[in-house]
Amino acid sequence: MRLVVDLTRCQGYAQCAFLAPDVFSMRGNESLTYDAEPDDRQRDRILRAAAACPVQAILLDRLDGGAAPGGTAAVPTRARSTSTRPRVERIVIVGASLAGLRAAVTLRAEGFTGTLTVIGDERHAPYDRPPLSKHVLTGRVPAQRTSLPRTEGIDARWMLGSPAARLDIGAKEVVLADGRRVGYDRVLIATGVRARPWPNPTEAALDGVFVLRTRDDATVLRRRLGAEPRRVLVIGAGFTGSEIASDCCDLGIPVTVAERGPTPLVGALGGVIGATAARMQRKHGVDLRCGVTVTALEGDADGRLRRAKLSDGSVLDVDVAVAALGAIRNVEWLHDSGLAAGAWGVACDAGCRAFDVNGLVTDDVFVAGDVARFPHPIYDYQLLALEHWGNAVTQAEVAAHNMLSAETERWPHLSLPVFWSTQFGIEIKSVGVPTYADELVITQGALDGDGFVAAYGYQGRITAAVCFDQAKWLDFYARLIERRAAFPPDFHAVDQPDTLAPVSAEIPDQTLPSHVATVLVTGHQPSDRRATLVHGGEPSGGL
Predict the structure, then answer these.
(1) What percent of the chain has pLDDT over 70?
(2) Residue 34, SS3?
(3) pLDDT level of residue 533 (50, 70, 90 thresholds)
(4) How far apart are the C-alpha atoms of 72 and 99, rounded to whole Å?
(5) In the beta sheet, which residues pair with residue 423?
(6) Measured between alpha carbons, how far is 336 from 288 in angstroms, rounded to an integer?
(7) Using an 8 Å Cβ cutoff, are 5 and 32 in contact?
């Protein structure tokens, strides 16, 4: 059987680890590890564990979305008139990962009976990416056991290992790299991102230089880590780089992390929380070097990595280097399509319909997942580009629904971003957009304690929250963000500090407009969420 845990929901209650300990395990207070493809002999235990999950975060290999035992999450649907439904007979999904799979499941659950084609550049069936840096590198879970559930029974034509090369909107065709053409009535772009490689091609080709994004990447890197290298160099201390450093510590491998910024995670969470992450890394033995860059990677006569030179003049003897430099959105195949596709992704409206280069909505082209760039009313309708597991799921559901719906029955994608990272036995979670802030305040716990919650604020309202091992409180903060609650917050909470003193969030390169949209967002399922503009006073400035 197959399963996946929605870790955006998981709050670390550990009922699954008690009821099915051979499948689920907990490290620290909230860090969950699980086998995504357990032996069928574990089925009864898994069903009991999933049913006991207080937040129903365990998704099993059922396609019908019904009341399956074990907490299979249903695809949200609602009654609608089929007489107004547009005529759609051929749908093509470009991208065979999480968003593409979820869209395919939703289309069938909503009654689509036409031809469904899923195109993917990798040869693998859809698999879950978060375990690659969280579980696979340490050997807890083999890379081949990360497949996503629900791939069987969709009745789709799977064209795997066949990357798309061009989108012909006029002819309504997707052109593959081998020249084949696939016609569509509606197409969903879900091509995601790829790892940014080390910029020097000669150095990147050295034996021992890696990136981590795909199952194949994880397989070869896991094999190299299993050979017990003398030292690993991780270039970049974002979430992926920090998780790789954590894996090395688990394996007992000396690891150096080189970060251009002042702290780890500074680009995502700001300098205050980044300083806490830095202390956590050093506490676990990471040789963390901030404010430096890697200027060169050097190999021996056989082309094997041997040394790295840093901008501070130091030289490291290393056998393995992992470039964790962020991601590149897969939009090159769209350059001549006429769509608004660029380095930040494909721009679309809140209903996931792609914009063309003139800013006009295209009614037959939809976007979902990491490659999408969409407006959110909570954040002044700025276009957000997110690489979040939960966003890929929810946006794919919205896109699939809207591909089949009349104008009056379409849903907006208004879910708040939720993200998690597991490192050094700590579960880090965020809701909202922490970089859309200028201040933060510790509302529960303490930065030097066992766990804490930090609320972020901008222009007098809460815009995000981040927690270390305190995931059960995030739903509360999500409701505050959606209600545009005041910042600094004025409430009594568990384990609240004596004073709520805001400090600078130390967000780098803050470029925010001065207009503020006041929005109320309600509901939890895509079918329930609607925004209502509340017109107040004059904006504080602008063009």
Answers:
(1) 90
(2) strand
(3) low
(4) 17
(5) 426
(6) 43
(7) yes
